[in-house]
Amino acid sequence: MNVEIINVGTELLLGEIVNTNATYLQKMCKELGFNVFFQTVVGDNSQRFLDCLNIAFNRGCDCVITTGGLGPTEDDLTKELSAKYLGLEMIFNEAEAKKVNDKCCFVSQLDQVTDNNFKQAYFPKDCYVLDNPIGTANGCVMSKDKKMIVNLPGPPKEMTYVVDHQLQPYLEKYRQAKIYTYDILTQGVGESAAATLIDDIVQSQKDISIALYASEEYVRIRLGVKAKHQDEADVLVKETKELIEERLKDYLVENPNLFEEVMKKINGFTILNECDFSLSDYFINNGGPVFIHLTLKEHALGEIVHVLLKYKEKEISFDIPLLVKASLSLSKLESKLIYQIDQLIR
Fold this sequence. Notes:
Number of helices: 11
Structural class: alpha/beta
Oligomer: single chain
Helix content: 25-40%
């Protein structure tokens, strides 16, 4: 099943809140084996929302999952517009109206609630209602002509509850082979260099997706494969994973918590820092067995930190070039330090 996610709310486009709903839904779709090729954020505008639905279904989407726009105010139109797009009639649901009334009276401690709250009791004909006991706006699943639209409430607390207790159980009947992912962590090699080393492996793959992600600390190679269960995925990915690991064997990180591994072998550092920044508290300057000497020199594009490391009879030195200011990339600097220290004390 190809799924698109449309998160509705002008506040999302203004950067006033973080769109955690999209991530949560993407994880659910991954678990169920659904493809998510596109995710859209649109403001509270009727025509633009309808345009988003049209674009999604025209490019091969089977199901659109929306969040937001299910409340009692005039600009909460997601459910009404979704039904309009599919050509479904909106019907007042007496049972849902009672739920709305009871909840609103309870949370407001009033005997009566304003009529606009009952807007939340209208649903498309023959839809499946997704009950939301921790909010007043229930979601729903509507379908027509092999097109499915799921409406979910916008508040993350409500959305996650409805997904976990209502939507995911409902969608279980559509479950497909899921995507299993495997991470290979490297350090001491850049993203472009790592990509070059494994380019032929990447280009030869058909059933396994391979992608590289760079961070300050690591380059992560992620392998993804569709399978019905973990054992099947392990078999499918085994040969490719071993090829990549062999190609990048000089840079593999066996333990992502490398600092912890290093500190199991030594009790601290002796640090002579002549730079204009301080290392994090992880680097304990307590006269430990690893000597670290840091100096700094300017460059037109930034700063170069020269590092001298000594441990027993062994000694290495190297440069770490950092753009603009070294103090802006301390995590990158420290990850390279730990990597080299780990090599030194082996």
